[in-house]
């Protein structure tokens, strides 16, 4: 214990009775919290293996008596998840390419190039961050409509290229790269684009990976915007399809519903567990700097 | 502006605003939004900081606990709705727990008086993990010598929390409070998915009404007018946020 860095309580405190009791209570509370955090996951996953009668038995049981895999077969029969999955990947791919090309070029020029009115442009982009997202939803929609982009994936890709948050995130990262590096590159005759592709991009792999992770989770989770701007159901991404056909469905039995929900929930969870380090790093980057 | 895609747009002065203020559902939706924000503050605002303090005191499994708390954040919104639709089902787990405690059954989503509360609980369950991590970062950043000195001076554990930990993360409290106000004032998706604004408009928020006006009634002009009103309020809130953010950097 002695070489551990202390926090609010020291090891001396632990010799006191009241502190011990308080600490035990705190541990109990945290345990209860952990259970409430994990319980909905557990019911969702386990209920997806139950028969519909078993879900409603009283008193409730967490574990299914026997695993009924046919729920999954039925779920896949009920909603086609393959095409929405491809749509989601398409959306994500487009978002990724656009934010890598346009957003990062913008961030690079704001950070490393001698641009006229650089400060003004930066402040302008930054000020758009202060506008609450809900208020520009309708103008955004109307703009896309007059551009004739409704029901096409450009309705997602185009706004992705104007993401002020991403520009600022990348710019602050590029600011951290040593200016001499680019000076040396320019002296050796490299063009700005070459500097960007050969120097800036390889050096900012960590920030790009966070950006891609954010892009992935937001494309995977967003159901509302796609249901607004896409009119033909065969273009819907996964989340919207699930919202329309599963959440709002009254004929689907709960066990089959849970099987679809489990399938939808797993990829982001796995993704998170794999890339946990990067995500936490990104949260620190984008989080409030106290 | 009268937005009409067939006849073209036409300028109609302040008519949209007049219509907005004449709408009887406007007051209801504003009241609901304020009630929703209040509940979010009452339930969701203090939880993350307390949990963060508790986690920072853990000697083992600290990383695991962080992960567990953050996990609901990963769940896609649609899965969240499905989960909580089931948890709030009249025959679902929430009522089973309630029956163990006091043999009283609730209609979580269809009772006017608790529908909003149910929504807030579901959203808090999902969202508080992210905020907890921010608080944790703040708590970890507090210099340990302060606690050491306080302990030598004879301050108890609670006194140390009261006089060192809480002042140490005060700026995060302020920022999180304003961020929460800005975020919750725009909430409508969970309401849409879980209750559809009902029962009897009890969960109809302002933003939900804007969406309804625009995409159900196809009255973009009136929806935009409501959006502008909201923009004015929220932007002034953001200004306050920006002010505090700028100040906390110096501190």
CATH superfamily of the largest domain in chain A: MetI-like
The residue-averaged pLDDT of chain A reads: 81
Assign a percent range to the helix content of chain B.
Answer: over 70%
Main beta sheet of chain A, described? none
Shape of chain A: globular
* Overall radius of gyration of chain A: 25 Å
Q: Supply the CATH class of the largest domain in chain A.
A: Mainly Alpha
The largest sheet of chain B is: none
| DSSP strand count of chain A | 0
Transmembrane segments (chain A): 21-42, 85-108, 120-142, 154-174, 195-216, 258-275
Subcellular location (chain A): Cell membrane
Membrane topology (chain A): Multi-pass membrane protein
GO cellular component, one term (chain A): plasma membrane
Q: How are the elements arranged and paired?
A:
The complex is a heterodimer of chains A (290) and B (251).
Chain A: H1 17-47, H2 52-55, H3 70-78, H4 82-112, H5 118-128, H6 137-146, H7 154-160, H8 164-175, H9 179-187, H10 192-203, H11 205-221, H12 224-229, H13 238-247, H14 254-274, H15 276-286
Chain B: H1 15-22, H2 24-57, H3 62-74, H4 77-87, H5 93-102, H6 115-140, H7 144-152, H8 157-168, H9 170-185, H10 189-194, H11 206-216, H12 220-250
């Amino acid at each position: 214990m002695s070489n551990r860095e202390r926090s609010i309580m020291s090891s001396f405190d632990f010799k006191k009775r009241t502190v011990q009791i308080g600490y035990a209570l705190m541990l109990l509370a945290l345990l209860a919290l952990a259970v409430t955090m994990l319980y909905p996951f557990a019911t969702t996953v386990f209920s997806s293996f139950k028969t519909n009668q078993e879900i409603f038995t009283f008193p409730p049981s967490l574990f299914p008596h026997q695993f009924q895999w046919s729920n999954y077969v039925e779920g896949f029969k009920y909603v086609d998840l393959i095409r929405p999955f491809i749509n989601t990947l398409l959306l994500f791919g487009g978002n990724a390419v656009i934010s890598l090309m346009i957003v990062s070029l913008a961030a690079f020029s704001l950070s490393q190039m001698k641009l006229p009115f650089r400060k003004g442009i930066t402040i302008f982009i930054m000020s758009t961050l202060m506008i609450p997202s809900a208020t520009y939803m309708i103008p955004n929609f109307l703009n896309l409509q007059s551009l004739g982009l409704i029901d096409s994936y450009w309705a997602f890709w185009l706004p992705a290229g104007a993401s002020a948050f991403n520009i600022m995130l990348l710019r602050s990262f590029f600011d951290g790269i040593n200016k001499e590096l680019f000076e040396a590159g320019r002296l050796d005759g490299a063009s700005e684009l070459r500097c960007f592709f050969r120097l800036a991009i390889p050096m900012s792999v960590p920030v790009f990976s966070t950006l891609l992770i954010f892009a992935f989770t937001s494309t995977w989770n967003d159901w509302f915007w796609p249901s607004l701007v896409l009119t033909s159901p065969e273009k819907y991404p996964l989340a919207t399809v699930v919202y329309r056909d599963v959440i709002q469905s009254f004929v689907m039995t709960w066990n089959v519903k849970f099987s679809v929900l489990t399938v939808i929930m797993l990829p982001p969870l796995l993704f998170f567990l794999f890339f946990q380090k990067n995500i936490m790093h990104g949260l620190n980057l984008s989080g409030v700097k106290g | 502006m009268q937005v009409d895609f067939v006849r073209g747009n036409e300028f109609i002065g302040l008519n949209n605003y007049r219509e907005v203020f004449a709408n009887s559902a406007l007051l209801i939706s504003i009241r609901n939004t304020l009630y929703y924000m209040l509940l979010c503050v009452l339930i969701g605002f203090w939880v993350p900081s307390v949990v963060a303090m508790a986690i920072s005191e853990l000697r083992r499994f600290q990383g695991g606990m962080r992960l567990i708390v953050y996990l609901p954040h990963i769940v896609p919104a649609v899965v969240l709705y499905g989960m909580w639709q089931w948890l709030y089902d009249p025959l679902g787990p929430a009522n089973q727990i309630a029956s163990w405690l006091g043999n009283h059954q609730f209609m979580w989503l269809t009772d006017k008086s608790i529908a909003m509360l149910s929504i807030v609980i579901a959203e808090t369950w999902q969202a508080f993990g992210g905020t907890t991590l921010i608080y944790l970062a703040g708590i970890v950043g507090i210099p340990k010598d302060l606690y050491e000195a306080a302990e030598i001076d004879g301050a108890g554990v609670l006194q140390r929390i009261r006089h060192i930990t809480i002042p140490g993360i005060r700026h995060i409290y302020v920022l999180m409070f304003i961020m929460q106000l800005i975020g919750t004032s725009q909430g409508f998706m969970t309401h849409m998915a879980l209750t559809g604004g009902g029962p009897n408009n009890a969960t109809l928020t302002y933003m939900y009404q804007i969406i309804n006006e625009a995409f159900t009634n196809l009255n973009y002009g009136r929806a935009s007018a409501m959006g502008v009103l909201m923009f004015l309020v929220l932007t002034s809130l953001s200004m306050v946020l920006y002010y505090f953010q700028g100040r906390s950097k110096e501190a």
